[in-house]
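Bit of a strange request maybe. I'm writing a small parser for structure token strings and I need a real example to test against, not something I typed by hand. Could someone generate the tokens for this chain?
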Amino acid sequence: APHAGVDLSRIISLVMAFVYVAFLVFQLRTHASLFSGEEEGEEHVADELLSVGTSGTLLFATTCAVAYCSEFLVDSIEGVSETYGLPKSFIGLILLPIVGNAA
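Reply from user aminoacidic:
Good idea to test on real output. This should exercise your parser:
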């Protein structure tokens, strides 16, 4: 059964590659207008919503909050691995990125 993990890994990588190519076709060919910038002839007035100092402070505070929460998430990997019988590598390579992107 050592090959089962390799086969599953190859299948998942093929599915991910297909989804990526499908997204590129969607973004660049079929729905390019949804992802383009401003239309020609359309003027954009830049409104400054936040100052540079406020933006930097918010970025720093958010980074600290994410680092703090990540510590709890990483510390819980071992318990989840033992409770549900999932390998730590699966949790780290598959589940954590999904949870991270969903949040």
